[in-house]
Structure formats: C-alpha cells, structure tokens
C-alpha cells in the first residue's frame, strides 16, 4: 500500500496493491509520513473505501476533520445495531452510517462544549415509533461518555436513533427519514380513528404493525413494492375483511395526498396487518 497524502496525524489517503483508493486511520499513523511511501495496511485501526472509483479525495475530505476516537466509537455504536434485520449489512452502507454518525457526534460534542443544546422536534414520534433505535441511542451516549468523558444531553439519543432509522434507506436521505416518521405517525392516527381506540405504541402488537409500515416505506423508497396481478388477492381480502380493507384504502388515500403511491398488493397486505392489529388484545 502506498501513501497518496497524509490527512492528519491519524489518517492517510492511500492506494492499495490493487490500485484502489482508501483512507486508513490509526493513532499516530500519519505523523511524519510522506506521499509515495509504502505503509503496511495491517497497522490501520479503521479502513474506509469510496463508494465509487475516483472518489478517494472526496472521502478524504469527509474524514480529515473527524477525530479517530470519535470514528472508533461511531463504529462501535453502529455494530451495536448490526443484529437488527432492518439494518443493512452492505459494507458501503455500514461505512456511510459510521461516517455520518461520527460527523454528528463530532459536532454534538463541539456544541456541548460551547454550551449549545438542540431540541429535536421528532422526540415524541421517535419515542413512540422507534423504541429499539432509541434504546441504541441511549447505549450510544454511554459509549461516547466512556470514550470521551463527556455525557451528552439525552435528546442526542433521539438524533442517534434517527441515524439508525436513516441507515435503513439505501439513499440515506435524512429529510426523507423524518418525513417517513411523520407519515407513519399519520397512518397510526388513521388506524386509531378507524378502530375507535387509542392504540398503545408500546404494545408488541402495535410494534409489529409499525415494523410492517417501516418495511413498506423502505420498499417504497427503494422502488420494490409488492406488485403484479392483485385482483385475486384484493378480492379475497375485501371479501374476508371488508372493514379493514377500507381502512387500508383510507391509508393509501391519506399518503397519496403527500405524493406516496402504494400498489394494490401492498394495500391488500396492509389490510391484513390492520385486521391483525384490530383483533389483538391491545385494541380490545
């Protein structure tokens, strides 16, 4: 592996033996290094590769201002959520998640040092809809404190939870994730009104329903909704559960106003999940 250029005392832009650019990080790894020098990749503590060939310098610019200890703690935090089936195991997606989280934590620590605290407007929605991710957010605050000695405000757990939700989308668009969160909350309001009961977001039945909605929105975002001939499926579900099919159609209409299109098959499957929720102990 050869050094292209040192970024700081802890990171280097390099080219590996296959001619592929990468950024390696390690304590003191960049100190006194010169372009063109050979370096053993085994001494790197973290290795990052650009998503596309030729983007090594963009990746280097992204990493140059990130402290090594924060990148390391971000990698540990992302690993905590690796068992969640909604989280991508794709290496490029994991790397993107680590760097986005490291960037967030770096600025959160700077804000805290300067006495600035942010209030996140989606705290209620995140608490109700993403309890697993919020739990990871609180674990993350403990990891940050262990690594830096700084205890960030509890509201930062909300922001970190949103990073985990955001990582479930291939595009990684944070604004789209916030929009999805608001839309899921609206769907719950539609269903709650149709059931004439206040659904309990902390119940397992509602958690399962929300998980289905999250998978649905991921499929919508990635253009892989369940599609194909739906006449037989829709007809049988309309006949077996007409009330719940109407609720699912109401959900489709509500989302269509916001430009979200749901296929007939997805409406049919949503009706089944509404029926399951409606007949659960949580809604009796």
From TrEMBL:
PROSITE patterns: PRD_2
Record bears the keyword Repeat: yes
UniProt keyword Transmembrane helix, yes or no: no
GO process annotations (BP): regulation of DNA-templated transcription
InterPro entries in alphabetical order: BglG_antiterminators (IPR050661), CAT_RNA-bd_dom (IPR004341), CAT_RNA-bd_dom_sf (IPR036650), PRD (IPR011608), PRD_sf (IPR036634)
The PRD domain, residue ranges: 65-174, 175-284
Pfam families: CAT_RBD, PRD
Keywords, ordered alphabetically: Repeat
Entries under SMART domains matching the protein: CAT_RBD (SM01061)
Transmembrane segments: none
GO molecular function annotation: RNA binding
SUPFAM superfamilies with a match to the protein in the record: PTS-regulatory domain, PRD, SacY-like RNA-binding domain
Protein name: Transcriptional antiterminator, BglG family
Organism, as annotated: Corynebacterium testudinoris
Lineage: Bacteria, Bacillati, Actinomycetota, Actinomycetes, Mycobacteriales
């Amino acid at each position: 592996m050869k050094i292209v250029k040192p970024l700081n005392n802890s990171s280097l832009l390099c080219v590996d033996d296959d001619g592929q650019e990468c950024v390696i990080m390690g304590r003191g790894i960049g100190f006194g290094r010169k372009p063109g020098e050979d370096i053993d990749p085994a001494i790197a503590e973290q290795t990052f590769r650009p998503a596309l060939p030729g983007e090594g310098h963009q990746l280097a610019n992204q990493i140059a201002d990130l402290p090594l200890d924060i990148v390391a703690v971000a990698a540990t935090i992302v690993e905590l959520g690796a068992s969640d089936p909604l989280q991508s195991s794709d290496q490029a997606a994991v790397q993107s998640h680590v760097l986005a989280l490291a960037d967030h934590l770096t600025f959160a620590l700077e804000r805290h040092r300067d006495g600035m605290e942010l209030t996140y407007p989606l705290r209620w929605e995140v608490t109700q809809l993403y309890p697993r991710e919020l739990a990871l957010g609180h674990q993350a605050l403990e990891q940050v404190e262990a690594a830096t000695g700084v205890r960030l405000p509890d509201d930062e757990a909300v922001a970190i939870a949103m990073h985990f939700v955001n990582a479930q989308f291939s595009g990684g668009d944070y604004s789209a994730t916030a929009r999805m969160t608001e839309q899921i909350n609206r769907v719950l309001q539609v269903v709650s009104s149709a059931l004439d009961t206040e659904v309990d977001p902390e119940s397992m039945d509602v958690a399962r329903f929300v998980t289905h909605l999250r998978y649905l929105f991921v499929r919508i975002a990635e253009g892989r909704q369940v599609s194909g001939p739906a006449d037989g499926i829709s007809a049988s579900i309309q006949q077996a559960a007409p009330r719940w099919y109407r609720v699912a159609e109401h959900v489709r209409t509500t989302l269509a106003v916001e430009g979200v299109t749901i296929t007939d098959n997805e409406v049919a499957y949503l009706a089944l999940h509404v029926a399951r929720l409606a007949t659960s102990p949580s809604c009796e």
